[in-house]
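Posting this for the archive.
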Amino acid sequence: MTTRVAIVGGTGKLGGIIREVVEHEDGFTVHATLSSRSELDELDGADLVVDASTPAVSIDVVRAAVERGINVLVGTSGWSAERIALVRPLVDAAGTGAVFIPNFSLGSVIGSALAAAAAPFFPSIEIVEAHRETKIDSPSGTAVRTAELIAAARAAVGPVESPHVDQRARGQQVASVPVHSLRRPGVMARQETILAGAGESLTITHDTIEPAQAYGPGIRLALAAAREARGVVVGLDSFLDIGIRPPGAVPGETRPIDEGGVPGQVARATGA
């Protein structure tokens, strides 16, 4: 049976990559390609909605899919653990599935998992992420997800040490982790997680060089999983056994974290 996929944001960069994968994937077909400004009535008749829109539009896409009883795969930035918690009751009540993927790259997922696994052993942790100048949100969804995983992994030892966070140049705190965002030409996507302790530091770096090649395998995996999902699932690692898991971590589980009134990307979902 062929799954009919409606892609919101399908005219954008990520959406175009997703559309290309769907067109060549057995068992899937493109039902509709919507821009971020399209009427959401165009979702009617789809078996699966894929959201690659903007942070400002994404919440409406998810609600529209859930209201129609359609599973949704979300690749749009802007979904912190706190924001996801707001839609969980809607998804559960509808009996549908909502899969949130901060990054479709396997290397990025492994990098975030490594950072979380190392987090309990280093008191100081900061994230520096860089994207092209056209990216409309910051911090990136991957940085938010990494910070939330770090915070969860440090539940037993407490928040990271981040002195002078009252100073604006110290970055945006996400789940106690300072995050610094660079937006400049010549960069596709890069994230460094810098962990430091007495007399040493550890830096975990991931670079996206060619997005279509980097994201393709993850998109295919996420499409298959989202088609059958029930309830809310977060992260590509929910469908992979990469063998890296901090103590107490539960695959696919994301819990709200007190972020001082600025939950993840909610305060930065200001894109057009």
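The mean pLDDT is 90. Residues 84 and 256 are 8 Å apart (CA to CA).
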